[in-house]
Amino acid sequence: MPTAAHERVEALDVLRGMALFGVFLMNFTAFAGDAVMATELQLLSLPTAGLDHAVDAVLNWLVMDKANTIFAFLFGLGFYLQMERLEARGRDAETIYRRRLTVLLIIGVAHNFLLWNWDILHLYALAGFVLLAFRRASDRTLVVVGLVLAAFGRMAVKALLDFTGSDAGDVGYSDSEALARQALSEQGDYLGLVRHFFDITMINYVLSGFLLGWLAYALGRFFIGAWVGRRGWITHAARYASGWRRLMRLALPLGLVLEGAAVLMAGENWLEFEHQPLIAACLHLLAVPVLAAGYVAAIVTGLQGGAARLLGWFAPAGRLALTNYLAQSLVFAFVLFGVGPGLALAGKIGTTAILGIVVVTYAAQVLFSRWWLGRFAYGPMEWVWRALTYGYSPPLRLGNPRGANHETN
Q: In this structure, is residue 408 part of a structural domain?
């Protein structure tokens, strides 16, 4: 059976819910941005262009790469907890988890090619299979390999692809390609968009080999998450409260300063000096895990104090993370594409408008998640995932002896 409700770790649900908001925000702004679904000229022509530039800088400082770092970290942590609990129940943990990852891979591939070609679910499933092979690795291996892959994995793969001449990382991301996508969108040509993004994914992501870079990027964060799960630092957070406070006080200001410097160097011409882009990139690589750790420490610390009730509002969205993540793709499609009832606003809205849409939509997801979990034991897609994993249809509505109060971290 999946994990019982009394076994849930609230900090994981809260962290997952908050990370989901950040992932939603950055995915939306990036996909609606320059050379993806809009051109630079279109975005500069918007009446909000000046404000959009400032909001972009703030989001790059506070959210970019930090949200998906926490999201991936939590996957690795959740992996360790699930394996531990399955083994405690005398179950064949590896077989069950392989089924779980296989189902996630199928969902992710379908999601990637039919709706959202920046899907992460397939990537998490592939990285999960690798993590499964390392589940007995020592703490030192998890930490060292995790840090190296998290910090340098994607960069190392890109450098190798550049050296061999096989990197096609920019194929499909130009102003002309963005205008072609807008034309397909305004024609309501769903199949045309599917074919277009399929070609980009295959050339730019799979055949180029850059999939390996993203795999390393995710896997490094998985390793760190599994290590933290093994140490029990979040599952028994109250026991380590003083350590979390110290980490928050160190990592949060340091990460903000480092990432602030990286954003300034990357975006301001008046700071030009030799090797500026390289230094900015290195600062960013260092700042991301530091600031992400600071965020996690701040949230875990807040849950031990007066902010627990406020932070608890994010927990239901975290419990329905798969459902909410997939639903966010429908929001992208509705706003940016002209298929069916779609608004076809690609190139017509900037970051400020998107921020407003994301805040309102995510608030609705939080309220919906609370309402749903007051009546049902699983989220809609979480139910599908578990049914296919465990090989039976668990009762969905609360109050059923077999189906009540079961959910998994």
A: no
Residue 225's Cβ-side half-sphere holds a number of Cα atoms within 13 Å equal to 31
Domain span including residue 368: 5-390
CA distance 6 to 202: 44
pTM comes to: 0.91
Structural domain includes residue 395? no
User: Distance of CA 107 to CAs 102, 125, 321, 382, Å?
Assistant: 9, 10, 14, 11
In tens digits, what is the pLDDT along the chain, a chain of 409 residues? Answer: 444 444 578 999 999 999 999 999 999 999 999 989 999 999 999 999 999 999 999 999 999 999 999 999 999 999 889 888 888 877 788 899 999 999 999 999 999 999 999 999 999 999 999 999 998 899 999 999 998 888 887 777 777 667 666 665 667 788 999 999 999 999 999 999 999 999 999 988 888 888 888 899 999 999 999 999 999 999 899 999 999 999 999 999 999 999 999 998 887 665 666 677 888 888 998 999 999 999 999 999 999 988 999 999 999 999 999 999 999 999 999 999 999 999 999 999 999 999 999 999 999 999 999 999 999 999 999 999 999 998 888 889 987 544 444 444 5
**Is position 331 within any domain?**
yes
Q: How many domains does the chain divide into?
A: 1
Does the residue 117 lie in any domain?
yes
> How would you class 216 by CB atoms within 10 Å of its CB: exposed for 0-12, middle for 13-18, buried for 19 or more?
buried
